[in-house]
Amino acid sequence: MEAFQTVRKQIISLLCDEELTPLDISQLVHIPEKDVADHLVHINRSLGSQGKKLQIEPYSCMSCGYKFKKRDRLDRPGRYPQCKSGHIRLASYRIL
Ligand SMILES: [Zn+2]
């Protein structure tokens, strides 16, 4: 649990300074990209009591611009609901 707390503090500190993608966060904090979403969910919950907010620019489709806004989870979408081509633009996060 202590390791988790440390990682989350590092992520919060980074996101207070700049906007980052899950890939950026995984590289800066040295955790797998797939673990970033889970940390962000917990961070998002804990921020409320500090009067801060996790601002999310959602994953989007680079072909049609579709934004994956309604996802409850913060991990990378697996497929496109709107079109089958193109690439997913990574989500980015910032704490304000
Ligand atoms: Zn699309």
User: How many structurally independent domains?
Assistant: 1
Biggest sheet, in brief? 2 strands, antiparallel
The CATH first-level class comes to: Mainly Alpha
The molecules bound to the chains, other than polymers, are: zinc ion
Average pLDDT rating: 86
SSE run: HHHEEEE
Under the CATH scheme, which architecture would be assigned?
A: Orthogonal Bundle
Tell me the total number of β-strands: 4
Strand order of the largest sheet: 1-4
Oligomer state of the chains in this structure:
single chain
Rg (CA only): 14 Å
Figure out the total of helices. 3
What structural class do the secondary elements suggest?
Answer: alpha+beta
CATH topology: Arc Repressor Mutant, subunit A
Instruction: Name the overall outline.
Output: globular
Fraction in helix: 40-55%
Distance between the termini: 26 Å
Q: In brief, what are we looking at here?
A:
The protein is of the alpha+beta class and 96 residues long.
Description:
With 96 residues, the chain is α+β, with helices and mostly antiparallel strands. It is built from three helices and four strands; from the N terminus they run αααββββ. The strands form two sheets. Strands 1-4 form a two-stranded antiparallel sheet. It is globular. Bound molecules: zinc ion (ZN). Zinc ion binds next to loops.
Write the layout of secondary structure elements.
Blueprint (H helix, E strand, L loop, with lengths): L1 H16 L4 H8 L3 H15 L6 E4 L2 E2 L26 E2 L2 E4 L1
Antiparallel strand pairs: 1-4, 2-3
Bound molecules: zinc ion (ZN).
